[in-house]
């Protein structure tokens, strides 16, 4: 077995790091997913659909966007298989897909939201302390 050495040696073996390092394509796929969810409106729609099944009209009302704009976001989420849909009469209903990937993304989103809440609270407390 060949030992891997890095150009700047810190006295540690790089073999373990290289054995754990995912392939570049895995990072590319992850970056695309982060890109998809980097839009605030799309992220809000995804969050809603993780909790409720909704139609375009209700989603539009909830996020304050036009029906075509919401449909555009839904199409992108559906293309990545993050949501699924079904028709009931003339209505199409959407919800988060029941997959491990979606469950993980939803869990991460909930954690990030809770972190942003605590960060905002800490900022408010810090600003209150500074003004005293």
Automatic annotation (TrEMBL):
InterPro entries tied to this protein: ArsR-like_HTH, HTH_ArsR_DNA-bd_dom, Metal_resp_trans_reg, WH-like_DNA-bd_sf, WH_DNA-bd_sf
Pfam families in alphabetical order: HTH_5
Gene3D superfamilies xrefs: Winged helix-like DNA-binding domain superfamily/Winged helix DNA-binding domain
GO function terms (MF aspect): DNA binding; DNA-binding transcription factor activity
Positions of the HTH arsR-type domain: 22-116
Cross-referenced PROSITE patterns: HTH_ARSR_2
CDD domains from the UniProt entry: HTH_ARSR
Keywords associated with the record: DNA-binding, Transcription, Transcription regulation
Protein name: ArsR family transcriptional regulator
Native source species: Dorea longicatena
């Amino acid at each position: 077995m060949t030992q891997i050495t890095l150009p700047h040696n810190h006295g540690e073996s790089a073999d373990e790091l290289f054995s754990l390092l995912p392939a570049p394509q895995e990072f590319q796929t992850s970056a695309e997913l982060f890109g998809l969810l980097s839009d605030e409106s799309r992220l809000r729609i995804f969050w809603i659909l993780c909790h409720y099944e909704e139609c375009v009209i209700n989603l539009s009302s909830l996020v304050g966007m036009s029906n075509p704009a919401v449909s555009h976001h839904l199409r992108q989420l559906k293309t990545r298989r993050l949501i699924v849909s079904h028709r009931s009469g003339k209505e199409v209903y959407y919800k988060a897909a029941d997959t491990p990937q979606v469950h993980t993304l939803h869990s991460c989103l909930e954690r990030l939201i809770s972190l942003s809440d605590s960060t905002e609270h800490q900022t408010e407390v810090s600003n209150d302390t500074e003004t005293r």
